[in-house]
Amino acid sequence: MTAQSRRLLATYLNDHLAGATAGSNLARSVASANASTPREGSTRALADQIEEDRRRLVEIMRQLGVARQARKQTLGALGERISRLKLSTLGTGSPGLAQVLRFETLIAGVTGKRRLWRALRTLALEAPLDAELDQLLQRAEQQLATLEQLHEEACREVFSKERDASIE
């Protein structure tokens, strides 16, 4: 790998780490918002998995000799905190709509993470890492399936309530 390729890979991985940090924070927020609801178990499990995936990315970066860029992590965390305003009841005017948008944001994040694992898989770095990347890809697919289901449920709840309210 050339020096330029290594710099680009470092930028790419650090950008994904910033996104993973923001996604982990959002997933924890979603799990907290769903405590004591039928979604509690699945949202908590997703938050745990998303955080574990973030830790695995940090480890993969270490294995590849890629330094973490604190500035990008700080900006990612700041962006996530700012997005909480839009993804809140204050920003949407509805707790249900905020929930729908949070699930959509997590779907986008997990889709990006899946692309990361695939990109790293194409590099064919080393056999043990390839096997792990295959597992991470499979878990991302499972996370997406769960998030799609949660999103659909939230949409049905929110928009059927909205429709019922407009009929009255």
Could you walk me through the main structural features you see in this protein, from its secondary elements to its overall organization?
It is a single chain. It contains six helices and no strands. The longest helix has 41 residues, at 127-167. With 168 residues, it is mostly helical. It has helices at residues 3-33, 40-63, 70-86, 89-92, 95-122, 127-167. The protein has one domain: Ferritin, CATH 1.20.1260. The chain is globular, with a radius of gyration of 18 Å. The chain starts with a helix and ends with a helix. 30% of the residues are buried.
Proportion in helices: over 70%
What does the largest sheet look like? none
Regarding CATH, which class?
Mainly Alpha
In the residues, how many domains can be counted?
Answer: 1
**Radius of gyration in whole Å, from Cα?**
18 Å
Question: What are the key terms here?
Answer:
168 residues; Ferritin; globular
